[in-house]
Design brief:
This is beta-glucosidase. It is built from 24 helices and 25 strands. The strands form seven sheets. The protein has a six-stranded mixed beta sheet, sandwiched between helices. The chain binds beta-D-glucopyranose.
Length: 784
């Protein structure tokens, strides 16, 4: 390739000096001059927003005009780094430094920390001809240094404010560590608990996922991307990735148009509306075409109908993988297909950097396509304020004062508490009695300070979480004896993001101590579940029952002391019918993050009354998967007394715990469900909710609808509203929900949204199964 410095003598902007100050000042000066001249004409007639947009547009266009083709392609090239930017590059990164210095890289991922990002940025800004700053991206999935619950856990809060808080602190810490961009939120609606990445999403429901994903975007991005405390979000994976057949990661995806439009796309659309700055496409094919080369979803829908003006990054080498898919003959063809289809930036694929120039010369790729992609990348950089100051996020002092601060940890504890779901509580075992004198804290995860950090843990410090044991000890006080025993190990392999996990299936030497601890205690807290790297990318499981010797340990303890509270830790729904049958109390605590132990103690001792609700159905067995509440009716729904209906002959159709399920230390009663459909454009639904128990509690009241008959079959239930309400003992409240065409319609197979008149069921209650039902007739008026 040509060296841009020699091929574009007309550009004088950076000839004088290679120093950043000089470069950026010149860019700013040039931009400002042009902007002043061009924009001043509009100043009297336009609002300030429009002026801002014009400034942005003028700046980006002017910069683009100065760029060589090679430099433009560089902006579409993203590379990873795990090497210390102050030291020599390892073999895989040979040549990176030269490319960076030449301005032939637009973005890096996995460079983290104020110092490393500063060094990398300097390399580019001080040496390259135009000094265009890099955008640093990283997988900040549930916190940067201070860990919050895994996203599936946070979704159990059913609380957009809680989710937003978590994302905003993740953004603050990331920004302080020099980052500009997170590859989150993942908004893949997932119905298959075997797929390890359900841990990263908001569960199985498009409505809940839309609200929570949009909240996450707002949390990361704040009001203004240029604010130093915010970072750009990335809506991923566009689209359909969670529908990998048999829950096996990266597997084939086969989805109908109805599923695409009604289930998969809504959270993406909501996130675009919330201002998501970037998108990431996905590894899978959509109706035979890899997402990276899918013009329909990337150009027609996203950039066309939805008006998205940010950029789309490929997933890691997803452009290259089009060859393995059999969709492109070679990498060059893959590059051609992907850029034309609207994939703007190539993550670690080397497809664009190697072939786009040739493709333009051969007229296979129109320069306008390249320009559009580059403009999008530059626009996001502009919005982040990187042209004003490319180093503004890389400040070691700020980093030091921000990461893992007391305030961040206290927010993590709050979010963690809100994410806990009480699955079972026979005879009010929980909260534990104030008069209790001895507690056994047992299990392979009980004193594990690392597991609660979960997978995709960004820059968390290993073993830094508050363990269950620590949390319980801190709260119990000196009058309560805590008898701890591990019982057994869950895994025998070392914890490792990329390694295979080996479970302990033979070593029972710790059983006796655990049994002894249980025997001499009034109550047992048994912390079991999944290893933290058992869910996440590449972590699909054919069997979602608890692994290793954990169920055996449970049985051994149960034999001597059945007064057991199960403290579950897991990143996906697990099949635990035996625990449900025997253990009197079960707490779902996911991987709760840095403050896990304290949050669990808050709930165990009743300082916090749990209000989490499952964002994903818990199956009884592997054979029930995929199981989700918003399924279509069949022609033979049953239940019937004979065999010819849709069911298993060896197991109930019902899940172990349904979507939306979760108990409280108090009781709630729903009454007086009423529907007023006199104004068909705003159907009013009301219900009385009463706290009939003894203590204050918070309930998530859920509203579902069913369109009884439509031109395309509709699900038996669809969540269309929820309210999180706190009521004192005995208090009641009248809740009202409004249903408009936004809630009552659906997408047809061409992607057109329609509302059809006819009978609807409306259901309100405490979870997707226990509901009051009313019906109403939607008249044609609203359909017009
Ligand atoms: C994952 C993405 C992630 C990317 C960068 C890919 O393997 O699918 O979700 O953002 O790697 O780490």
């Amino acid at each position: 390739m040509n060296n841009s410095k020699q091929t574009n003598p007309s550009v004088t902007l950076h000839e004088a000096s290679s120093q950043y100050q000089s470069n950026t000042h010149k860019i700013k000066w040039l931009a400002k001059t042009i902007v002043t001249l061009t924009v001043s004409l509009f100043l009297f007639s336009c609002g300030s927003k429009q002026v801002e947009n014009n400034e942005e547009e003028v700046f980006v266009s002017e910069l683009l005009d100065k760029m060589t083709l090679e430099e433009k392609i560089g902006q579409l090239h993203q590379i990873t780094s795990q090497w210390n930017m102050t030291g020599p590059a390892p073999e895989y990164a040979q040549g990176h430094e030269e490319r960076l210095k030449s301005g032939l890289v637009g973005s890096m991922l996995n460079v983290i920390g104020a110092e490393a990002t500063l060094n990398a940025q300097k390399l580019v800004v001080e040496n390259s001809r135009l000094g265009i700053p890099l955008i640093f991206g990283y997988d900040v999935i549930h916190g940067y240094r201070t860990m919050f619950p895994v996203p599936l856990g946070e979704a159990a809060s059913w609380d957009p404010e809680v989710v937003k808080l978590s994302a905003s602190i993740a953004a603050l810490e990331s920004a302080a560590a020099g980052l500009h961009w997170t590859f989150a939120p993942m908004m893949d609606v997932g119905r298959d608990a075997r797929w390890g990445r359900v841990m990263e999403g908001a569960g199985e429901d498009p409505y809940l996922a839309s609200i929570l994903s949009a909240a996450r975007v707002r949390g990361f991005q704040g009001e203004n991307l240029a604010d130093q405390k915010t970072i750009a979000a990335c809506a991923k994976h566009f689209a359909g990735y969670a529908f990998a057949e048999s829950g096996k990661d990266y597997n084939n995806v086969d989805i109908s148009n109805a599923t695409l439009h009604n289930v998969i796309l809504p959270p993406f659309k909501a996130s675009t509306a919330a201002g998501a700055a970037t998108y990431m496409n996905s590894f899978n094919t959509i109706q035979g075409l890899p997402a990276s080369s899918n013009e329909y979803i990337q150009r027609q829908l996203l950039k066309g109908d939805w008006g998205f003006d940010g950029f789309v990054v490929s997933d890691w080498n997803s452009i290259g993988e089009m060859v393995a898919h059999g969709a492109a003959r070679d990498l060059k063809e893959a590059a051609n297909m992907a850029i034309n289809a609207g994939s703007d930036m190539d993550m670690e694929g080397n497809a664009y950097t190697n072939f786009l120039a040739e493709l333009v010369e051969e007229s296979k790729v129109d320069i306008k396509i390249i320009d559009d992609a580059v403009k999008r990348v530059l626009t996001v950089k502009y919005r982040l304020g990187l042209f004003e100051d490319p180093y503004k996020y890389s400040n070691k002092e700020w980093e030091k004062n921000t990461l893992y601060s007391l305030g961040n940890k206290s927010a993590a504890r709050k979010v963690a508490r809100e994410s806990i779901v009480l699955l079972k509580n026979e005879e009010n075992k929980l909260p534990i009695s104030k008069s209790i004198k001895s507690i056994a804290v047992v299990g392979p995860l009980a004193d594990d300070k690392d597991a609660p950090l979960g997978n995709w843990r960004a820059d968390a410090v290993a073993n830094s979480a508050v363990s269950v044991l620590e949390g319980i000890k801190a709260r119990a006080g000196k009058d309560v004896t805590i008898n701890y025993a591990k019982g057994c190990d869950l895994v025998t392999s070392e914890r490792n993001f990329a390694g295979e996990i080996k479970f302990n299936t033979t070593d029972r030497t710790g059983f006796a101590a655990a049994v002894a601890a249980a025997k001499k205690s009034e109550i047992v807290l048994l912390a079991i579940g999944e290893d933290c790297f058992q869910s996440g990318e590449g972590r699909s499981q054919a069997d979602i029952r608890l692994k290793g010797l954990q169920m055996e340990l449970f049985d051994a303890i149960y034999a001597v002391n059945p007064n057991i509270v199960i403290v579950l830790m897991n990143g996906r729904p697990v099949a635990i019918p035996e625990l449900d049958a025997k253990a009197p109390a079960i707490l779902e605590t996911w991987f709760l993050g840095s403050e896990a132990g304290h949050a669990i103690a808050d709930v165990v001792f009743g300082d916090h009354n749990p209000s989490g609700k499952l964002p994903m159905t818990f199956p009884r067995s592997n054979g029930q998967i995929p199981i989700y509440y918003n399924a279509m009716n069949t022609g033979r729904p049953g239940p019937k007394n004979e065999v010819f209906w849709s069911h298993y002959t060896d197991q109930s159709n019902a899940p172990l715990y349904p979507f939306g399920y979760g108990l409280s230390y108090t009781d709630f009663k729903y009454d007086n469900l009423a529907v007023d459909s006199s104004d068909p454009s705003a159907i009013q639904v009301s219900v009385t909710l009463q706290n009939t128990g003894a203590v204050t509690g918070t309930e998530v009241a859920q509203l579902y609808i069913r369109d009884q008959f439509a031109s395309l079959v509709r699900p038996i239930k669809e969540l269309k509203g929820f309210q999180k309400v706190t009521l004192k003992s005995g208090e009641s409240k009248n809740l009202t929900f409004t249903l408009t065409e936004k809630e009552l319609g659906f997408y047809d197979n061409e992607g057109n949204y329609k509302v059809e008149d006819g009978m609807f069921d409306v259901m309100v209650g405490t979870n997707s199964t226990d509901l009051l039902t009313e019906t109403f007739l939607l008249t044609a008026e609203v359909v017009q």
